[in-house]
Every structure is written in structure tokens, then in C-alpha cells.
Amino acid sequence: MDSVRSKDIQKDRSMDRSTSSGEDKLFVEHCKGVNGLERVILREVRGSSVEVYLYGGQVTSWKNEYGEELLFVSSKATFKLPKAIRGGIPICFPQFGSHGSLEQHGFARNRMWSIDHDPPPFPTNTSNRAFIDLILKHSEEDAKIWPHRYEFRLRITLGPGGDLMLTSRIRNTNTDGKSFAFTFAYHTYFAVSDISEVRVEGLETLDYLDNLKGKERFTEQGDAITFESEVSVDKIYLSTPTKIAILDHERKRTFVLRKDGLPDAVVWNPWDKKAKAMTDFGDDEYKHMLCVEAACVEKPIVLKPGEEWRGRQEISTVPSSYCSGQLDPKKVFQSD
Ligand code: BG6
After folding, report:
1. Does residue 325 carry a pLDDT above 90?
2. 25 pLDDT band (50/70/90 cuts)?
3. Which of 128, 287, 262, 250 is nearest to 186 (CA)?
4. How far apart are the CA of 109 and the centre of ligand 1, in A?
């Protein structure tokens, strides 16, 4: 994948937000990506960046101010319709996983989204200048499998400190008076040094549905979630806290995931057997990724005509470890 360098800022080939000033082009660049697919690059002054493909409305790169990649994208990812891009942050809508009659994870992740040039007012932090608004709407083709009219607005923002925020606003625009129900996830693939060095905090003692055991309900035991048992993990934790931490000991980096409107959290690592079965995933790549996904799966969201739902995920990093059980970033201590 192309690297995103600050000197690229000078070579802006963009057709930027129509209302934006020239200065804004430093923050938002429109260009072509793999296979000529349209993409948008967000940059912040300290050097962090985010790459977004209109295909899937999908974030495919999130780099910190040192240019280090924080998301995993498979070396075998195909940037080709109709397969979803393997990695980054696919959007699962209107169905998460196989929890319904639609194709796995719904269709939003393999549709072409558009730039939303005139989004409805958004209570936003005015200091954020690196953001893009995307939109996906019903089509006649999709209505054959999901007979509803909707507007899905997605704002992707790179904060000045390098935080990545995704806010979804989904509106029922049915004209036949019908409500609709959907499930949802931000299917985030975090890049980790080595899965056996990773620990997830915030989910211990919670109930979960185990996708590998017929979606049966269990209660998590133990202190924190680790990945040493050499088997795939595919769990939907229920009624989770608004903050979850993913600690990468080897890299001395902690990802902090904050969420709003999304009560569940999916944790997935395919491990070796499933990895080998996936054509767009390298055999050993499971060692370097972990999906932790802010989601709403157990209780679908129901919208009446005219109603709107919002779901937000914010991810950031801190260069240290958390005290076990302390998810307040102010309580972070330096591990070395
Ligand atoms: C996870 C699911 O979110 O995504 C897993 O919990 C699934 O069950 C995984 O295997 C990957 O799905 P896909 O469709 O992208 O291969």
C-alpha cells in the first residue's frame, strides 16, 4: 500500500470538499488507490494520517505521527469488487456476521459509498479539520435483499492528537410506514506485534456469545483476555463498558477503544487453521492482528420511519501499559 508522507501534501491532486479553502486541502486529499479505487487521505499537522476507501466506506490505514501503521491489512487483501477489503475497519451493516438472513456482515462493506458534500448539521469539535463525510443509500438492487430505504452517513475524523473517530448516523427513510431492524459493527483490525503478547482489558467476567459454539452464552472467567491457547477466538461480549483497552506488551503500546451506542464488543482472531482457509489472508498473519469490534448484535436496533440512530467508535493509543483494571487514561503509568 502507498505510504502516506507529509511531503505528499504538496502534491495535492484533490478535488477537495467543495466549500473548503486551499488550506483544508492539507488535511483532506482525494486521490486514487489500489486498482484505481477512489480514496481519501486525512492528515494532521503532527504527521498522523488515515486512509479511507470509498469502496466499503472503509478505513484501510491509520498511522501515528511517526508513520507507524496501527491497523492491520492483509498482504493478500484484494481491493476488488465484490470482495470486502481484508483489514482496516470494514463496516458491518445491516447485519453483523451470520445473525440474520443476509450475506455475512451485510452488504455495506462491499458497496461503493459516495462523498456526502452537504451532511446535516453535526455537533462537532471545531478544531478537527481532517475529516470526511461519506454516505450510502438504498438502491433498487439492494432492496431485493433488504426491502428498506435508508441513509447511512459516516463521518471519519482524524483528531489533532492522532485519534481516529468514526460516527455513523443511520436514518430510516421508508415511505411505506415500515420500521426496520439491523445489527452493526465497526470491524476493527488492530495491528499487534505478536498475538501471544496481547491482553484485552474491560471484558473480563462479562457474558458472551461464542460464535464457535453455536452462539451459546457463556460467562468469561479470569483476569483479562489473553491469546495463548492456540485456538481461534470468536466471541461477542454483551453489555460491555464504553472503554476497552488492548495492550501490546512487546510494542509497549495500548489501544484505547471508546464507544457510544454500541453495547457489544466482538473479539476475533482466526488462528492458524481458519487463516489457512481464507484466500485473502496470509497463513501466519493471525499473529499480527486482533479484531476488537464495537458492535450492536444481541439486541438489534429498530428504527421507525424518520428515526435516526447514532453509533460512535473512537480509537487512540497510549505508549504504555495500563494498571490492570484501570481503564482511565489519566491513570496510565509508564511501563519503563
Ligand atoms: C468476525 C466474526 O467479526 O469476522 C467471525 O465474529 C468472522 O465469525 C470474522 O469469521 C471474519 O468475517 P469475514 O466475513 O470478513 O471473513
Report:
1. no
2. low
3. 262
4. 12
Question: Which ligand 1 atom is nearest residue 92's CA?
Answer: 3
**Cα–Cα nearest to 160, from 210, 198, 193, 125:** 125
Which residues are tagged catalytic? 187, 293
pLDDT of residue 222: 77
Taking Cα atoms as reference points, which of 170, 200, 176, 173 lies closest to residue 188? Answer: 200
pLDDT value for 101: 93
Give the helix/strand (H/E) hosting 272: helix 271-277
3-class DSSP assignment, residue 112: strand
> What's the pTM?
0.90
**Among 89, 110, 268, 297, which residue has the most ligand 1 atoms within 8 Å of its CB, making it the best to mutate?**
268
From ligand 1's centre to the CA of 97, what distance in Å? 6
Q: Is 39 in the pocket of ligand 1 (CB under 6 A)?
A: no
Q: What is the pLDDT of residues 270-307, one digit of tens each?
A: 999 999 999 999 999 999 999 999 999 999 999 999 99
Q: SS3 letters for 228-264?
A: CCCCCEEEEECCCCCEEEEEECCCCEEEEEEEECCCE
